[in-house]
Write a structure and sequence with these properties.
single chain, 367 residues, Rossmann fold, OB fold (Dihydrolipoamide Acetyltransferase, E2P), 2 domains, 6-stranded mixed β-sheet, 10 helices, binds adenosine-5'-diphosphate, binds magnesium ion
């Protein structure tokens, strides 16, 4: 294994949250949360506003005590260990830089607090300035930096003392799209270079999918699903997760039956074959398919494919992709997206929408 890739792997922490609950008065902000964070992992907490992401991060940091449950780090119970002893790095949206300190003084601050020798501080600050691309800006005050540069200083300051865990709470939500993407790249690179355990909070699904080794999806204080980005996107366990991670087509099925990891049902007089996770929904089932997994053609699909007859109602040009809005003969709305380079092949409004059986999956029809 290349040693330079993970400089402080040995330093990275493994965390286990066991049945964590948090109430504010009668309100349950977190409900029985159990979750493992691997050593050196990039875990993203994803969920709508108010789902408990910040509350959980504050509990990890030690700024909030859980009402119930325990928190373990590297096998030790740290539930009652105060924040300053946990000593995690932190980058928060509103966690401002010290306005009266220069870039290098800001980055040096956590090292000074820890009484590191001045030669080490100097070397470490120099390394961090370079690592986040701020060479030449060392003597500037934060007010003379752009938003993106300020967040780079915040990242450098949080990583300067080589924390075993870095907590990031929606650090880029105030930045515009291009800058946000640049900062995402930066964070990904810093994670690879340092090997530190990163716990990142966002409500932006594409940011979560792009950055993380695993994504944990929260709603109403509950952990709904955790898994690799591709897994949660392509095999969501519930309609909430499926819809929160991106647009999805839902086709209600009649008479569905289950055979191991395959399900079969009828939609508008045609048999639809899908993957299933082995458990049958209690009431009805729906076939769920992402818009980019469907294709439009003038004929029904080949063997092993599902097809439904549709009419194109509208199309939206999105640059690299084009999105088609369609309606089945029975009146169900569908969306299909395809690379714009292929969109010119569609000449008629009456078409077939097809997809391979393994690209559709069975979800319960309730919410
Ligand atoms: P998120 O970060 O996912 O947007 P939070 O963890 O900040 O959500 O909040 C989860 C819920 O807990 C929200 O409904 C919020 O209003 C509530 N909450 C958070 N902190 C407090 C507090 N100190 N007192 C009362 N309610 C709180
Ligand atoms: Mg929050």
């Amino acid at each position: 294994m290349p040693q330079s890739m993970h400089l402080s792997d040995a330093n990275a922490a493994e965390i286990k949250a066991v049945s964590i609950g948090k109430t504010f008065g009668a309100f349950h902000a977190l409900k029985d949360l159990t979750l493992d964070i691997g050593r050196g992992e990039f875990l993203t907490l994803l969920g709508p506003s108010g789902s408990g992401k910040t509350t959980f991060l504050m509990i990890l940091a030690g700024f909030l005590a859980p009402t119930t449950g325990r928190l373990m780090m590297n096998g030790k119970d740290i539930t009652d260990v105060p924040a300053e002893e946990r000593s995690y790095g932190m980058v928060f949206q509103g966690y401002a830089l010290f306005p009266h300190l220069t870039v290098e003084q800001n980055i040096a601050f956590p090292l000074k607090v820890r009484r590191r020798p001045s030669a080490e501080i100097k070397r470490r600050v120099g390394e961090m300035v370079e690592r986040v691309g701020l060479s030449g800006h060392e003597k500037k005050l934060p007010s003379r930096l752009s938003g993106g540069q300020q967040q780079r200083v915040a990242l450098a300051r949080a990583l300067a003392f080589e924390p075993s865990v870095l907590l990031l709470d929606e650090p880029f939500s105030a930045l515009d799209k291009n800058l946000r993407e640049m900062m995402q790249e930066e964070v990904r690179r810093l994670h690879q270079e340092t090997g530190t355990t990163f716990v990142f909070v966002t409500h932006d699904q594409s940011e979560a999918l792009a950055l993380s080794s695993r994504v944990a999806i929260f709603n109403h204080g509950e952990l709904l699903q955790i898994g690799r980005p591709q897994h949660v996107y392509e095999r969501p366990a519930s309609r909430f997760v499926a819809e929160f991670l991106g647009e999805i087509n839902l086709l209600p099925l009649e008479d569905f039956s289950l055979n191991g990891d395959r399900a079969e049902g009828r939609f508008e007089q045609r048999t639809i074959v899908l993957t299933a996770n082995g458990t049958a929904p209690k009431s009805g089932g729906v076939a769920a398919v992402r818009p980019e997994h469907m294709r439009i053609s003038s004929r029904s699909g080949a063997d092993g494919e599902n097809s439904v007859a549709c009419t194109i109602e509208a199309e939206t040009y999105l640059g690299g992709s084009t999105k088609y809005h369609l309606r089945t003969n029975g009146g169900v709305g569908l969306a299909v997206s395809m690379p714009t380079v292929n969109a010119g092949n569609i000449t008629s409004k009456d078409v077939w929408v097809s997809w391979p059986a393994e690209q559709g999956f069975l979800l319960p029809d309730g919410s």
